[in-house]
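User: I'm curious what two different proteins look like when written out as structure tokens. Can you demonstrate?

Assistant: Sure. I'll show them one after the other, since each token string lines up with its own sequence. Here's the first protein:
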Amino acid sequence: MQQEQAQKKTTIFYIKRITGLILLLVTAAVFLFSGVAKLFAFDPFVWNIMDAGVASMRLASVIAGLFIGLEFLLGFFLIFHIFLRSFTYPAVIALLTIFTLYLVILIIRRGNDGNCGCFGEAYTMTPFTAIIKNLLMIAATILLYYIYSLKAYRYTKWIALVITLATLTTPFILYPPISNSKPQVIQQKIDLTALYLSKNPDNEPAPVELRQGKHIVAFMSLSCSHCRKAAFLLQVIHRQHPDFPIFFVLNGDSSLLPDFFRETQSEAVPHILFRGAGEFFAMAGEGVPAIYFLNNSIAERKANYFQLDPVYINEWLKE
């Protein structure tokens, strides 16, 4: 009888050990994959953080780098079995809880549409789906706390120190918060006559008078991936600062509009669909997205989509 009980305890021990190891490795893999995916799509992740209510692109980039670093840190701590019960498991639960609250804010602000950015652009996931994923991971971590742990081994503290320094600094080395450049200062006349008197009878006049006053006008193609990134960021800024005079001039096949707005969440931004490539590129210039800071039809700034910090825009509008 005692032998059977001992054998049963041994069996239960190994079941817990194997189950725990599998759960631990899966959890670690999710964190590491998530961190790598966000690194390869760093800018969209920053913009999603801005969409949750952070007004400054620079501050959002710091938060993004910190989140990515923590994901790498916890992923490697799990793999190397470092301070599991005393630090790693509670930290995993805390970080997943923060991510979940962030996703709830995204849903409140823009609904359950679009990609939450949890796995960068490697795997599209809605905020609600990501919340379910986080809750399952929290449950798995709680289970791990009770069934799987190891005592500290030799050199644990030194390994932990190396991992901490490497993981928390890597995102900031690759994407320094000070790297965001300001829009290019130019003085260029932009003839917007075609927006009101187009040669194409299918084009209706723009609903906003862009030739007078200050406006941020973005010329974008519906089929351009960089334009879609610019549109997503500009709609984030538009919702945070509805007083900013942002306007889209879109060019392309009208059948692409629903997908463009679905991906960029930008339908609420004032816009016009302008037909005809000739007149469009005569205004926009050679490449798109072409984002101009116009003052009485004079382009005083020209920006790429990664130069659209609301702080800079506000400074220009107040000049």
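Here's a second, unrelated protein for contrast:
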Amino acid sequence: MSGTRARATVTDPEPGGPLAYVKAIGPGLVTGASDDDPSGVATYAQAGAQFQYGLLWTSLLTLPLMAAVQETCDRTALATGKSLGALAGERFRRWRAGLSVLMGFLIVANVLNIAADTSAVGEGMHLLHAGPAQLWAAIVGIAVTALVFAGSFEKITIAFRVLCLALLTYVVVLVAASPSWADVAVHALIPHIELSKDYLLLFVAVLGTTISPYLFFWQSAHRVEELRAEPEGGDQPATLKTRRRPKLKLRTSRLDDFSGMAFSNLVMFAIIVATGATIGANGNTAITSASQAAQALKPVAGGMAESLFALGFIGSGMLAIPILAGSGASALSALLHKDWGFTKSVRDAPFFYVLVGAGTLGGTLFTLLGIDPVKLLVFSALINGLLAPPFLVLVMLISNDRTLMGEYCNGRWAQVLGWCAAGLMTIAALLYLVLNFAT
């Protein structure tokens, strides 16, 4: 969809009507589900396998921080009709060159993550006896690229929502694992901290995979795309400042954000508990990939648990691949004043689609070259961990700028939780560097 309008006015569904809340489910849910990609699944599985329920408390720690950050990113789009990339360029004009470098690093990290996720999907198909892992990795990479290049925004979002359902398999695996719920409750509510290098590194990894920079940009971009796709949308969609019922839109969007983050952390909780009750109960086990976690489940939980675990990360991987590519592509395109978005055709936004194709096909090429996906994840985690603090500061400065946001700038809780997230991720990045390079 293209076209320009000076101002848009949208009539939202009746206040309090259930239709308004059902229709709002989208960007928040998709963003939350994409956070549980195969790299995240592997991290959570490693936490359960290595420390049983010792890191379960982090699922409650990260929920309010993650929800606050994503709601803030979403609100910037709702209030301005612009993505974070565009707002960053507007707010920090003098620093555009430096921001372009940061966006470039984000794209590199995303490509490495795409490679690891594509490889994981291939390994998952192999576990289901569907054929060679590399063949399926290539098929998935090409199929996802074809979908985002040829599909409409409406069809792409439908596909995203369907793929979110794959993560429900982890809830089934959790029930099948039959954990001791008393132990689960104690470890979830009371932090059990170990001052060992392995524990601290895994703690940092959990934070890094839960509060990832690409999620900030995708949340904002997806919301702008949704606004563009409205009947009164276009290149200058209706914002909270121009809608007839802005409070309703803000309320339903927050419901979407918070439910998406709750779903994401529920999946995280389920994976840690399921692997902790099975693999972790049989001794400290090193898990380096989602497929290895699925294979390790089979001897203790049966073939059904292995298959369900594999189906979960196959679906989440196929969801995360285009989101990883689209987040970096939309951020850099908007920063450089290029047209972007899946609501536009390849002809209308060539720069954006070149970046998307480079991400999806470039990541797929890495898998075909036989590069170790675990090493790719390590590099990706390092880059993301170092990028998270400056990007979080960027989000907080933009969302607190009254010139840009008007009355929709940060309130007290958004300020407190947002800056807490920025501080925690800064400590995590420094801790990662110290543990890896100074010991």
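A detail about the second structure: Residues 246-278 form the longest helix (33 residues).
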